[in-house]
């Protein structure tokens, strides 16, 4: 009996297109003898569609190949395993995982808690602080009407103007700083500020994407990533390095600029790279991760200090994405990796 696998992609986030690319790769590489595949596209406005043409998923404007699913619960009920190939809000943040839990269906990847902690950069920080994993100094702000609320490390709140917020940042961290909406992905809404004026501008920009905003010290160093796989027995891949074509790994550098390069393995000493693998597993366990995640770090040039940046519970999954490439370097082929993830979901 083939496993009835629901491959869910697209989604209501800014990363809809990225998800379609990942899903295309996965679909092509899944063993059709093992799985009966049900591709499900979620449109940007949250409508669910079943896909008829399995050969080449391409989401066109007229959506010729798509049939709207009227009763989502009923449709999912007939499947054995669900594979959310979704990034960002409503896909990577625990919300859809909640739906799968209610349906009592096994699904690939992290559960509700790990997904939401991993998605919200403010809460990821709290957990990593608690786990004693070094991260860049940061300030947490919330947009409050036309003002801001500054939230300190004990969650005490103080209402501040934008100028006062900027003063707090300047007092606590050195420029350059990174300004991030707490719920971002693919670098959307993220900017690097070298001075107060830019900082002001980019805080106002970030608040278009989320009420919660993080401002972090910019770390000058290598940007590296480590993939983890497993439920209770978790393995870490070798470490890979990102060489962004831009000043940082912006949306453009990630998806549009071919001059961005990845390096596997990263140019690091064995010692640093082993430490990163350990920290990746530690971070994954700290958020209660299951299945898979890609854990991203910086290694500071001057000090060799390792800083954790973030954990991605549903990382990019095209054949050339870092997550599958890191395991490929370990001898686990893309299709084997898919089998393994589906097995872990059923565990
Ligand atoms: N503290 C930092 N120091 C240096 N570079 C940073 C820092 N934070 C983010 N960046 C750069 O911005 C990119 C996007 O930030 P990240 O937190 O990874 O957001 P996303 O979830 O959108 O990928 C990173 O890949 C990195 O290039
Ligand atoms: Mg990132």
What does this molecule look like?
- The structure is a single chain.
- The protein is an alpha+beta fold.
- The protein has three domains: 3-107, Rossmann fold, CATH 3.40.50.20; 119-134 and 220-346, ATP-grasp fold, B domain (D-amino Acid Aminotransferase, Chain A, domain 1, 2-Layer Sandwich); 138-217, ATP-grasp fold, A domain (Dna Ligase, domain 1, 2-Layer Sandwich).
- Helix content is 32%, strand content 28%.
- The chain is built from eleven helices and 16 strands.
- It has helices at residues 16-29, 72-77, 95-103, 112-119, 121-130, 162-172, 196-206, 251-255, 270-286, 322-328, 334-346, and strands at 3-10, 35-42, 48-51, 66-68, 81-85, 138-144, 147-151, 157-160, 177-181, 191-193, 212-217, 221-230, 235-243, 261-263, 291-300, 306-312.
- The strands form three sheets. A six-stranded antiparallel β-sheet has the order 8-7-6-11-9-10, covered by helices on one side. Strands 4-3-2-1-5 form a five-stranded mixed β-sheet.
- Strand 15 (291-300) and strand 16 form a beta hairpin.
- Helix 6 (162-172) crosses helix 7.
- It is globular.
- Magnesium ion binds at residues 296, 310.
Provide the descriptors you would attach to this structure in a database record.
347 residues; alpha+beta; Rossmann fold; D-amino Acid Aminotransferase, Chain A, domain 1; Dna Ligase, domain 1; six-stranded antiparallel beta sheet; five-stranded mixed beta sheet; 11 helices; binds adenosine-5'-diphosphate
